[in-house]
Automatic annotation (TrEMBL):
Gene3D superfamilies: FAD/NAD(P)-binding domain. InterPro entries: DHP_3-monooxygenase, DhpH_subs-bd, FAD/NAD-bd_sf. The keyword Oxidoreductase applies. This is FAD-dependent monooxygenase. It comes from Natrinema ejinorense.
Length: 422
């Protein structure tokens, strides 16, 4: 019953205040972007460019590299994952119009090449029928689609894989990082974009670690052309939400594996928030099919058959029919543990921490990618607008810490509410 989960009776509703769902009139045209052929790539020319080291080659690191290079600085990304092993992470992403507008305005990728759009949000009952519909447009994309376009902006000699930072030293000449292979690099500024398990953050803030929130996100995608005819109208250009007493399930379309946007060529992304006690139960969930004990997530393709079977069985007990089908039809489901993380400072002399390495914002705010992008873009802008690097970093830190704490607090409140954890 809805009133067992929420503090009011009536249809299960998600709080959209401050969220990334927009009324249908908030479309691309509202940003008044000129045609692609009429735009020039922004690239500043400065007298004393910084030598920037960026640790982490996912979204935050790529946005940082793009922004710093556009500001005229020399930026090199170091990613710990070895070449050829960068896996799809997170599958579906809610795309902020501001982020899409930035990428298009800088001639990185056309808006329509990055995101598809849903035309309404439906709240489902146990039978899978909509009990409430909101006419909201939601822009959706995928990790791999955004990654490909951002990665293309960074020259190969400035994106180095298999390079994990294990130590950081600073002196009057700048920052020196030591990699796991024993090599070192020196720069003027180190941007830490290593994600919520950041080793570098731990060096500066050893007492700040992610705190498990008590539930996980089962995730997966299914090719849209595999959806049975009886379910075609259940997905399509729709953002679906379903609430059981202790879990939340949502679906939305995302681009196909190669960025396809046409209906029938996309993928249906799904996320299922479900409680798991820390300890033996969670360890069993995260034990992969090769016998390796994972600690924070289970990557695609590594879920044991018995775990997937149990997932399907639970789905049959608590989910509407079409959502049950999504769970059972997913060939490579994966698991993301949900955490809270907030740190009181982002700048340590000439080292700054951005994105999930600083603030792990539960996905209920649809803010993870946009927050990492905002951190990076605001950092580059602050440095460009301030003569003194120390002052620029201090001013940037003040704004980003305030925003990060606000987002973490609100996302935690929503997550506890949506999963019945009061």
């Amino acid at each position: 019953m809805a009133d067992q989960i929420y503090d009011y009776t009536g249809p299960a509703r998600v709080c959209h205040d401050g969220h990334v769902y927009y009324n249908e009139h908030v479309m691309r045209e509202a940003y008044e972007l000129p045609p692609l052929e009429d735009r020039d790539r922004t690239k500043a020319s400065i007298d004393e460019p910084l030598d920037v080291i960026i640790s982490g080659g996912s979204m935050g690191g790529l946005f940082a590299a793009t922004a710093m290079r556009q500001a005229g600085h020399d930026a090199t990304v170091y990613e710990r994952t070895e070449a050829g092993k960068m896996k799809d992470r997170g599958a579906g992403i809610i795309a902020h119009p501001e982020m899409l507008a930035y990428l298009e305005s800088q001639n990185i990728a056309d808006w329509d090449e990055l995101a598809t759009v849903t035309n309404r949000t439906q709240h489902l009952n146990r039978e899978g029928e909509p009990i409430d519909t909101e006419g909201r447009a939601t822009y959706t994309t995928s990790w791999d689609t955004v990654y490909r376009n951002l990665r293309a902006e960074v020259p190969d000699d400035r994106y180095r894989m298999g390079k994990q930072i294990v130590d950081v030293d600073q002196d009057d000449d700048g920052v020196t990082v030591t990699f796991q292979d024993g090599t070192t690099e020196t720069g003027d500024l180190l941007i830490v974009a290593e994600g919520y398990r950041s080793h570098t953050r731990e060096q500066f803030l050893p007492d700040r670690s992610p705190e498990y929130a008590g539930y996980v996100a089962y995730r997966g995608v299914v090719p849209e052309d595999e959806v049975p005819a009886e379910y075609e109208t259940r997905f399509g250009d729709i953002y679906n939400l379903y609430h059981a007493p202790q879990s939340q399930f949502l679906t939305y379309p995302v681009p196909g594996p190669n960025g396809e946007m046409e209906r029938g060529e996309r993928r249906i992304n799904w996320v299922w928030y479900y409680p798991f006690e820390e300890g033996e139960a969670l360890d069993n969930l995260l034990l992969d099919d090769q016998g390796r004990q994972r600690s924070h997530s289970l990557p695609p393709g590594l879920m044991r058959e018995e775990v997937h079977d149990e997932q399907i069985e639970i789905a049959s007990d608590v989910l509407p029919e079409q959502l049950q089908w999504l769970v059972s039809a997913t060939t490579e489901p994966f698991v993301q543990c949900i955490y809270d993380l907030a740190i009181p400072e982002l700048v340590f002399d000439n080292v700054c921490v951005i994105g999930d390495a600083a603030f792990f914002i539960r996905p209920h705010m649809a803010a993870g990618t946009a927050h990492a992008a905002a951190d990076a873009l605001e950092l580059a802008e602050s440095i460009s607008n301030t003569d003194d690097l120390e002052t620029a970093l201090a001013e940037w830190e003040t704004d980003q810490v305030e925003m990060g704490y606000r987002l973490v607090e609100e996302a935690s409140r929503r997550g506890d509410r949506y999963t019945g954890q009061f």
